[in-house]
TrEMBL record:
Source species: Actinomycetospora lemnae
Pathway stated in the Swiss-Prot or TrEMBL entry: Carotenoid biosynthesis
Keyword annotations from UniProtKB, A to Z: Carotenoid biosynthesis, Oxidoreductase
Family from the record: Belongs to the carotenoid/retinoid oxidoreductase family.
Gene, per the UniProt record: crtI
Name recorded for this polypeptide: Phytoene desaturase family protein
EC number assigned by the record: 1.-.-.-
Domain of life the protein comes from: Bacteria
Domain Amine oxidase residue range list: 11-358
GO molecular function: oxidoreductase activity
InterPro entries linked: Amino_oxidase, Carotenoid/retinoid_OxRdtase, FAD/NAD-bd_sf
Higher taxonomy: Bacteria, Bacillati, Actinomycetota, Actinomycetes, Pseudonocardiales
Amino acid sequence: MTRAVVVGGGLGGLAVAARLAASGQQVTLLEATERVGGKLGTVEVDGFRFDTGPSLVTMPLVLERLFADTGAPLRDVLDLQRLDVAARYRFGDGVALDLPGERPAIAPAMDDALGDGAGAQWEAFLAHAQRVWDATHEHFLESPVSPGGLARLSLRVRDLLAVAPWRSLRGVGDRYLRDERLGLLLDRYATYSGSDPRRAPAALAVVPYVEQQFGSWYVRGGLRRLAEAVADRCRALGVELRTGARVTAIDTVGDRVSGVRLDAGERLAADVVVANADASTVYGPGGLLPHRASARRLARTTPSSSGFVLLLGLAGRDPATPHHRVLFPPSRAAYDAEFDAYRSRVPASSPTVYVHAPDDPALRRDDDGEGWFVLVTAPRHDPAGGVDWDAPGLAPRYAERILDVMARRGLDVRHRIRSCTVRTPADLERETLSPGGSIYGTSSDGALAAFLRPANRSPVAGLYLVGGSSHPGGGLPLVTLSAEITARLAREQSARV
């Protein structure tokens, strides 16, 4: 029986552990913190419970495959609910757009909110995005990355024209979207991978397509329940889940892995090691298994942005509060200034504000209050060369600024605040061991970013990478796909040995 050790208990690690165990491997998962789930965290404050990571499920078919391949189907385990309104977008001119959760309703809603013709512009863009999806999802998103995969894609001229690796997401959007507000809406999707729309590849057009084609979904009880459900599946399959178990090194014998070492001196033998950790933590100097060539490759990538968060416990409830809300800056120029600030490693003075306010009784203490997760994109924690988010007074001052920005954009809740908890990129780094608090590992900035992202199969035999910093990228659906690809590669190796 193949012995597999998974290092890290985020969603990617949990999902690959479940898949390996379901295939008959003996699996041990080691998590350095006291609970599994990684960025799928939760915090309780003053009777409110907040999801502190992802707030949305897209591509639910990926999760359905995970559960179907490892036991009882998803519908028997979690209550996924499709959102009628994916998000309420508030633009700089004060216009609000409630974006429907069903694609056929989107164009009419855009015409009603933004004027005749807006829906046709967006539908033309989505038709292009569908061509990108058709060209990439099988041969790239659901397959191991390799130079050969890039070559196969390049041989299909129509697919290459659709993907347009020479063009940015902003550039492809400008071909279809004449309304600046639609351009802002598209730009927002680049931030789903911690990227700048002016530098992110045009292939990211698949992000809005996937969300709007397959729907925006919420897990009743909070998305933390997804991590708990996959952990339960692991236990049912016989996976040994160990928390508080920090791995300090991955051992090798000859040219292949032989096990891992823990900080307490313990050593676990393994035929397969899967690292659900940031690739720089694995390959970099002082990492789990330093690898010079891989470290040099990583040095060519751009770390993704992080996030600055307010957890607001509010008095009173507004039944019209949308599940998701986005407050844009006054103009695209102001939005560009926000991205320029991140690249300069300073907090933006007037950032886009994202609010997650689920109407879920399981997350609030009573019917006379509501909990809001307020997020703005922020530069990573980098005391040496950027922002020191632990600097005295910085976090509370920036929290006040965010509340002021919300008020200026028509969402003043300062008089309703019962509790306000601030979470900075430094907090995220400490809690998830993600360097600098980068949410997605590396950003997607640059035409070759996807192919610079570390592959799931490492250069060392028996070692694999899974999760947001490896192929195909960050976010719930891609991390789950990463686990699917990695488990398949590990099983194929075990069958050859």
